[in-house]
Design a protein that fits this description.
This protein is an all-alpha fold. The chain has one domain (about 25-105). About 85% of the residues lie in helices and about 0% in strands. The protein has helices at about 1-15, 25-50, 55-75, 80-105.
Amino acid sequence: MKYLLVLLLTLASACAQLGLPTPQTFNEKMATAYATVTAVRDTATKLLVAKKISTDDAQNVQNQADNARAGLDIARKLADVDAANAKLASVQAALVALNAYLSSKK
């Protein structure tokens, strides 16, 4: 639970720094997470082209982005609100970690 709180505060802070409203609803959080998957993919591609990550590393990031996208698709379809929120939170945590890794390679 403590980790989830840190994650949510990190996401809220990131949105505030960009001047974006903090996502509040489940649908807003889902939209933000899907956009983050796209950003992760784009960043990995740019880092690969710039030769800052290897082909294997870029493929690994893409595979993790695929998994995150699949997790978001599952969360969106869950009827149980608590389960959907838990699934979304776990995917968000993975995306934060991927973003942190890619940021370290820039």
